[in-house]
Design a protein that fits this description.
InterPro entries: NrtA/CpmA_ABC-bd_dom. It holds the Pfam family NMT1_2. It is found in: Endomembrane system. The protein folds into 2 domains: 4-86 and 210-261 and 293-349, Periplasmic binding protein-like II (D-Maltodextrin-Binding Protein, domain 2, 3-Layer(aba) Sandwich); 90-207, Periplasmic binding protein-like II (D-Maltodextrin-Binding Protein, domain 2, 3-Layer(aba) Sandwich), CATH 3.40.190. Helices cover 38% and strands 19% of the residues. The protein is built from 16 helices and 15 strands. It has helices at 17-24, 27-30, 43-51, 63-69, 96-104, 114-125, 139-150, 169-174, 187-193, 219-224, 226-243, 249-257, 266-274, 304-318, 322-332, 335-342, and strands spanning 4-10, 33-39, 57-61, 79-88, 90-94, 129-133, 159-163, 180-184, 198-202, 211-218, 276-278, 285-287, 292-293, 364-365, 374-375. The protein has a 6-stranded mixed beta sheet with strand order 2-1-3-10-4-13, with helices on both faces. It has a 5-stranded mixed beta sheet with strand order 7-6-8-5-9, sandwiched between helices. The relative contact order is 0.16.
Length: 390
């Protein structure tokens, strides 16, 4: 059988695992796809490669298809988010010197206290906090702005935000280019290993179920290749289901550690996959429930309410009309294709494509096509709830 070649770009992060698994374990080939995974040095390079047609698909920051569809950030191109690849998975770290000042002022050093940690961070930072994020349009930026903004800091205006590729985050901290960062794993843990940072908070402590990466593709290519898109989505979903089985963590770590992918020791990769984070060099591991999710609680579904949330936030900062931006954002998250392509293989689909974001404080059964779907928790640390229709 001849295979259809798909060039798919990725950034070396643990949450690229669905793509690595779908290639290495044969899920893509079973769907008739020759999946070529192409590692990229930065999110801007990956975005441009996709926009220019050098790639058919990409591992992408969830706000990027929204921003691109709004005509922001480089090449204005309509981009589709076919499905969510991962939920959560980020860490916030500070320099050892800043952590020492926070402790001297009374910070207890816990890893699950967004209010106490945030207030101590704001006070200890003194002048404008220099913070590294992997890309301006990213969940990292959204989480930081919501967290620090809710605690009284003007964000992003009160921050010195610097864009740094994920693998360089620890190096930038060691070179005193930044005081803090928000980055995906394994690069927070790698910074801890080199003694350049202390991790102070998981991203999930800010928003407990934040869509982190999506499987993205150009809108025109998606519309011109419906069969290939369906096969790609089914292969990705099967890889996510495989990753959702805890018995497969060791094999997933081994795959990701290869030089073609993350090229980093598997014991560091394990921390994110197992949700056991070492926050300080030589310190004990801290268990973080749902630190990184691929499959549970309908993680792969591209909720249009999540797209609307991101669209509104980006519009506010960019001076765009908010209702129009939210409508464009909704269209970029292709819940229609998710339903059409995954229903035939028996995936349990939610009864709606939008919901209140942040309203679930505990696992909650919801209406679904097969009657077995449970969502949540998805709450924000400050109790905020986003209603996409108000």
């Amino acid at each position: 059988m001849s295979l259809t070649e798909i060039r798919c770009g990725f950034i070396p992060l643990v949450d690229a695992a669905p793509l690595v698994v779908m290639r290495e374990l044969g899920f893509a080939e079973e769907e008739g796809l020759d999946l070529r995974l192409l590692r990229q040095p930065s999110w801007s390079t990956l975005r441009d490669m996709l926009a220019l047609g050098h790639l058919e698909a990409a591992h992408m920051l969830s706000p990027v298809p929204v921003a691109m569809s709004l005509g922001l950030g480089g090449l204005p191109t309509r981009m589709d988010a076919l499905m969510v690849l991962s939920v959560n998975g980020n860490t916030i770290g500070v320099s050892p010197e800043l952590a020492t000042r926070m402790r001297a002022a009374g910070w207890a050093g816990g890893f699950a206290d967004p209010v106490g940690t945030g207030n101590h961070l704001i006070r200890a930072a003194g002048a404008r906090l220099r913070v590294g994020v992997p890309f301006p349009f990213s969940m990292h930026a959204e989480l930081l702005y919501h967290w620090l903004g809710s605690l009284g800091l003007s964000a992003p205006g009160g921050l010195d935000v610097r864009t740094i590729p994920p693998p360089r985050m620890g190096e930038a901290m060691a070179a005193d280019e930044i005081d803090a960062f928000c980055v995906g794993e394994p690069w927070g843990s790698a910074a801890v290993e080199r003694g350049a940072a202390e991790l102070v908070l998981p991203g999930s402590a800010i928003w407990s179920f934040a869509p982190e990466k999506v499987l993205a593709a150009g809108h025109d290519w998606v519309e011109a290749n419906p069969g290939t898109v369906g096969r790609l989505m089914r292969a990705a979903w099967r890889a996510q289901a495989w990753l959702g089985d805890g018995q497969n963590i060791d094999m997933a770590s081994d795959l990701l550690a290869r030089t073609d992918y993350l090229d980093i020791p598997d014991e560091i990769i394990d921390r994110a996959l197992m949700g056991r984070i070492q926050t300080r060099q030589g310190g004990a591991e801290v268990k973080v429930p749902r630190f990184l999710c691929f499959h549970e609680a309908g993680a792969a579904f591209p909720w249009r309410s999540q797209a609307a949330l991101m669209g509104r936030a980006i519009a506010r900062r960019s001076g765009l009309e908010q209702d129009a931006a939210m409508a464009t954002a909704r269209a970029a998250f292709r819940s229609d294709l998710y339903r059409a392509n995954l229903a035939p293989i028996g995936v349990d689909l939610p009864g709606a494509s939008e919901k209140l974001e942040g309203a679930l404080s505990r696992p909650t059964p919801v209406a679904s096509s097969r009657g077995g779907l449970t969502l949540g928790p998805d709450s924000f640390f400050d109790g905020w709830i986003f209603d996409p229709h108000t």
